[in-house]
Amino acid sequence: MGESKSFFGDPDPIFADKELLRVSHLPEGDRIIGRDDELQSLAKAIKDAQRGGTPNNVLIYGKTGTGKSLCSKYITRDLAEAAAENGVQVGIAYVDCFQESTETQTVRTIAESFNDPDETDITVPHSGVSTSNYYRRLWKILDARLDVGIVILDEIDKLENDNVLMQLSRAAEAGKVNNSTLGIIGISNKIRYKDTLNERVKSSLSERDFVFPPYDASQLQAILRSRADAFREDVLNEDVIPKVAALAAREHGDARKAIDILRYAGEITDEHGDDSVSVDYVDEAHDREEQARLSELISKQPTHSKYLMLALALRMQEAAEDEPTIPSKQIHSAYQIVCEREGAEPLKIRRVRDLLSELAFLSLIEQERKGRGKGKGAHTVNELVDDPEIVVEACRSA
Ligand SMILES: Nc1ncnc2c1ncn2[C@@H]1O[C@H](COP(=O)(O)OP(=O)(O)OP(=O)(O)O)[C@@H](O)[C@H]1O
Ligand SMILES: [Mg+2]
């Protein structure tokens, strides 16, 4: 018998610590680049919690990859540590509202995060408990264990309704908790998110609003450089990071995109059996990142937005080369056919227009107002940002 060979034995020739290039990786404070002002402002907004007071509720807006989730997690962790030194117990609950979008799921996750069953003697069962019962457990846990609970609601616009916001923002005033207090940090990509809230929730939730701006190329370079030790020594050619940063900055200064392209460049190098990451692989890495990002972004959209993306892609494939943009009305017609095929009830044109402008905000499509000629008013034309073929593929796999 020949010698057996392990498929896992060889050390990775490219990466020394690939975790540094994962989105879930939480860098140390000194590795958070270009966000000093934002971190300062956030700290100021929630600082009362450090002495057991009520923090301001905060809403954070900004395009994807601008460090919203990272800074919120970092600053709350820092606050909890500082508070502990004063003998104040601050608990942090992080909720990804895309995953936990119903009221019950959200309350359960918060209660679970704040709880320590050994200390409280309270359990948070995964199922078989009503929503109001989860709330009762949550209030008890807060009073039993914590002085301040801070709830980070990431992608807050994905919540099914405002109930949980109403309950959390009124907990102290309604006497649900007695010797503890609560703060909320809401995070959203949608700058108009606030308009969808009822007045009461709106005023209590957005005591402080912040907008995180995109990164420029030199900030992106610094972000990438601070993670270059993900690679083995001398593997990464000098010109790779500037090129990756320039590519990511050309779109909208998205740090996630920059980090992903760098990781893909390393993976592609490995697939080619090469031992150094060169700029030649960066374009391929960029394509791979676009495909992956698009599939993920489309998969997160509501069903009818997916149908609209597909309808626009199909219309663009048919469109004449010199007239690639598609009026919203034509998308609506193509969309009705898609709905029919999918057995879904199509939405009215007004709602379709809203969804299209949301897709434009997410940079999935581009919109432009065009005049129809003298006295005939204007209409909106639409275009995909990515190739129609890639979009059709992504919609089908989403
Ligand atoms: N200033 C920074 N310094 C170092 N790393 C950063 C910085 N900003 C973002 N990153 C990294 O970039 C990635 C994306 O950041 P983050 O998840 O915070 O973006 P986001 O604004 O929450 O985006 P989204 O709206 O898509 O959720 C993460 O891996 C994060 O660690
Ligand atoms: Mg985020």
Automatic annotation (TrEMBL):
Pfam families: AAA_22 (PF13401), Cdc6_lid (PF22703), WHD_Cdc6 (PF09079). Keywords: ATP-binding, DNA replication, Nucleotide-binding. ATP binds at T66, G67, K68, S69, L70, Y215, R227. The keyword Nucleotide-binding applies. Residues 54-216 form the AAA+ ATPase domain. Residues 310-395 form the Cdc6 C-terminal domain. One of its GO terms (molecular function) is ATP hydrolysis activity. GO terms for biological process: DNA replication. Belongs to the CDC6/cdc18 family. PANTHER family: CELL DIVISION CONTROL PROTEIN 6-RELATED, ORC1-TYPE DNA REPLICATION PROTEIN. Involved in regulation of DNA replication. This is ORC1-type DNA replication protein. It comes from Halalkalicoccus paucihalophilus.
